[in-house]
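Replying to the earlier thread about multi-chain prediction with a worked example.

Input:
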Amino acid sequence: MADWDEIKRLAADFQKVQLSSSTQRLSERNCIEIVTWLIQRKMVDLIFTSDGKEYMTPAHLILIFTSDGKEYMTPAHLINDIRGELYVNGGRVNLVELAKIIGVDLSHINAHLNDVLKGHKDIHSVLGQLVDSTYITKIAGEINEKLQQQGQININDLTLQYDLPADFVQQHVVEKNLGKLIFGKQDKKDPRIFFTETFIARTKAKIRGALIGLTKPTPITVILSHADVSERLFFSLFDQCCSYGSLTSRLVGAQYVPNIYTRSQNEWVNNFYKQNGYLEFDALNRLGISDYKTYLKKLFANDDTILLKSCVISKNILDRAEADIEECINSKSYLDLQNNLPSVFNEQDIQIITETILNTKKLRETIVIENYILSKAFLETLIVDCSKKLEENANKVVENGKYQHYQTDLQILNLKTQKMRICQKKLKLTSGRREEKKQLVVRVVEVHKEEKRKQNQPRNIIEVGKHNIEEIFEQIQEKLEEEGLDMLIDSIANYLHPILNEKDITTELLNYIAAEENMNTVTDNFTNEQRLKFVNDLSQTYKNAFSTLTKTLSGQNVEEFLNSIDDALATCSMILKKIDKKKDRIVILNHKHSLLEQLDKCDDPALALHLTSLILFVSATQNMLHASGRHVSSILVFLKQFLPPEQAEELSSYHEFVTLMLGGGSEAENAKERLKEKLPIIKTIATEFKKINPEKS
Amino acid sequence: MVDEGTRKTLSNIPLLTTKAGPRDKELWIQRLKEEYQSLIKYVQNNKSADNDWFRLESNKEGTKWFGKCWYIHDLLKYEFAVEFDIPVTYPVTAPEIALPELDGKTAKMYRGGKICLSDHFKPLWARNVPKFGIGHAMALGLGPWLAVEIPDLISKGVVSYKEKANS
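Result:
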């Protein structure tokens, strides 16, 4: 049976399987125990490892267990293995990897590392790795290739790429093969950098190109980014390849300043300075010279210069200015420094200049006002001119009665001062619009006029005024003789008012309007015709009111004037202030009191009578009166109506005695005695009258 | 249930497909062929795992099996003869493995040295008819029995080490 044959075969196979492998298995299984036992007893003669191939002599009794404990090897074999693996792995192998590949503990490999290295100088142990010369040669070739490609190579990059310590790469790989396998140069400043000649040449060319192209100061960083050159390289090559400019420093933030720029800058500065004799600091700043002080010091080391607030000037300018001033002194005129010096100088500069120029001698001969220098001599001439003018003016003022108006018309003064204030305000506003320069000149002249006026005017006016008043009173007296006493007050008023107030007030108003309307006319000295013409030229708003006003000026009636001035003021949006009776009364009272005081102290009978008559007049009429002694008799006649008959009698007899006394002659002595007796009576009349008076007035 | 090692061993023994007993003639041959193939694989597995523990051979018809089995305890190898017949109702009935040497020395044994199998064996076998064969019977029956009984017998002094020139 074929099937049974098959069974037989299978049975035989079964037996074979059961028998064949069993012996071997047995021996391998016990191998570990046997070897251990042998090692313990130190009885080993011949030992075979698990694969039965390796033998060892008793001399190499030290065995190394593989990690799985199934294999044993001698140190020599291990060393051999390590070298073999190193070769297989292309000349570089990690010790940990080695331990895994060979199958022994890492400690065994470390322990036998020295044996591996012994006698083999081409093998290096680096950072837990074994590297031999073939590998070094290989990477040296690679490095060279890279160097030729990139032109520059850094050890640091290599250490990263090859995962080897920098020192090793430096000493054993690159420096050893420099010139043999690696063709390049070592950077003298940084031994870690290597580069090729072509690279250096290329970079130099790049830098040179960039630097030549620049015409203005440029930050290094910008150059670097444009030229794509490393900062370190730039600085090391800069000196070799550049004579076209300079660096402000050796730092990254430095600036490259091309020579051409410096040159043109210096040229400009020199030219400007030579031409103009000064240099503005602003201009230097605009040129990019921020540290102008040291720059100027360098530039004008030999020149004689003077530093001002905003610029530097040459001696020439100073000389010129000095000459100008001298000339101004000699020619007795004034000098505007602002005009004579370059326009860039500010006031502080000019101040410095004047301070330096004006020595004590010159100071004595000049006066400095802002930018103007006036010679004293010029001032003198001005003063002379002014005083002439002043006298004229003063005379005119007195002649046309302005001074009397000023003295007597206190009531209206109130109104005037107020109006003046408004006028001044308006004037100031309008004056602001005028040309500044012109104003300045006017102001300077005015300042001096005023100065002069202050000194001279009061006296002049007072003198002229006194003189004038006497004249006026003479005229008044003449009139007085023709007309009655009753007309005294009215005639004085009539006489004074048109001359003083009306014209004056009208003139003020016209002045105000002129200012308001921006007309450049000064109406002070207008004649009647001029005034009329001016009024006719005014706009419709003013015209009506003012034409009537000017008409009243020529008339003699005060009432008319007062009526028309209300209208005129209304057009100028002003209000006439009501007469302040209280204030008037106080003024009058004060006047009376001063008269009473004088009377009290008075011993002279004639003067006493004069004062008494004045006091009585004031008390009776509530108006002030200034009169000379000559008018006493007429005043007494006027006063008769206010006085009780006895007192009037008393006064007239007293007056007679006074005239007798003053007349001199035989009865003078007698009269004097009588007067002395009567003096107290007169005085009491004067003082007591005040008390009776209020009921009457 | 059987232990983890046994289970692993068992899973590595090839399963059989033919359901036939000694009296089934042609089919028995087929069955016997499968038995041998299975056993060869099992022994090979054992050898490769360094776990060889028996020798078996059969008569020409494959109905009677005999051989040796051994157990290593305390570095000593205890060896016993093993024999069994294939029952007529095989494979529904499992073979009764016997160790004649130990007859009467332990309670875990029937007359004639047939070993008492664990409670699990029979239901497990019944569930796996006809997939289990002789190899399974050895691995599942005799192996665990030896591992449990021999150390016990040695410690009782019932079985002692015989100096024997083997292998």
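The radius of gyration of chain B is 16 Å.

Feel free to reuse this layout for your own posts.
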